[in-house]
Amino acid sequence: MNDFVSEVAKYRLKRRLDQAVAAIPDPGPPLVVVDLDAFDANAGYLARRAGGKPIRLASKSIRVPALIKRALAHPGFSGILSYNLREALWLASQGISDDIVVGYPSVDRLALTRLANDAVARRVITLMVDDPAHLDLIAEVDRVSDGQDPIRVCLDIDAGLWLGNNQIGPKRSPLRDKPDITRLAQSATQRGLKVAGVMTYEGQVAGVPDQLPKQGPKMAVVRRLKQASVQQLAQRRREVLEALRGIVELEFFNAGGSGSIESSAADPAVTEVAAGSGLLVPALFDHYASFEPRPACFFGVPVVRRPSPTLATVAGGGFIASGPAGKDRWPLPWAPPGLQLTALEGAGEVQTPLSGLTAGGLKIGELVWFRHAKSGEIAEHTNTIHLLQDTQIVDSVPTYRGCGNAW
Question: N or C: which end of the chain has fewer CB within 10 A?
């Protein structure tokens, strides 16, 4: 078993976390802690998996400026993949990065206007596009004099697995065929835009667990579909490069995520990979054949009730992850081991009952440590993240929310 997820490791982690946070003057729940030793180890592991290709940091999986800076300081990391144009503008204004790609198209006219009127933002931010309507919107706000840098765009190209007329993977871009890709690139350049890069995100490979326990036959199918995706994408990426040859000179070709770094980086067409979740390793990343988890982010909530000798109820805790509703989106009771949510109540808004072998031994006021199912989302529920190194809290830093931001 992975040394970091064994029952012994969980007991040790609880003691370490409990002792470290005891001196925090305002330990209001949820008490969110990031283990810097694990964070740094995960950064090194991601870089090794990328095989020398740079990793563009997916900021939505972090949402803590200090940790974004820390990740970018690691060898192998370069640039940010943001999830919102306003976020990208803020990151640029703070000097956190001079290479920011917005991972999703923006129709925020005010933010687009701010970009168009900001010489620095025009130089360091790249917008995502996959439709002529995106180009029209950019053109409407881009009223600048000659001599300024052109607004930069990246073409988001569908990377789903196609089996006949059926698509497996995220429903993202309509760009699939070479003629459509060529037309959009030509239209962008004719409007004076700089086509700086291409993105092909294979979510059906990067974001789907393939080693869930007690699901052997299903996982075998998932792994075969992943391999089919990798093989199909290698050909399609070559076709993308052929479609764009002679029209634009790409600065980057982005692909992948924390769950697909090896296969994405191995594709000769790909010049960089994206990753973020692999730094904090949320619960959804516990069951991948491609890597072993070393969880780095935990939130603690106190026991406030003992409704029976075999139950303990904690304050709050109902931080459900985005995506298709299901138990895999629930927060995972982690330390001490042996706890589970109840089927009837799950994770509650104001309280969460816990059952299991160790529930009876929990005392009122004692902290129970959870892991969120998805990376970064817990930062939307707190202003402050506490940074643990070895056995001590060495700093307490603001989240995006703590900086007054909401995107």
Answer: N
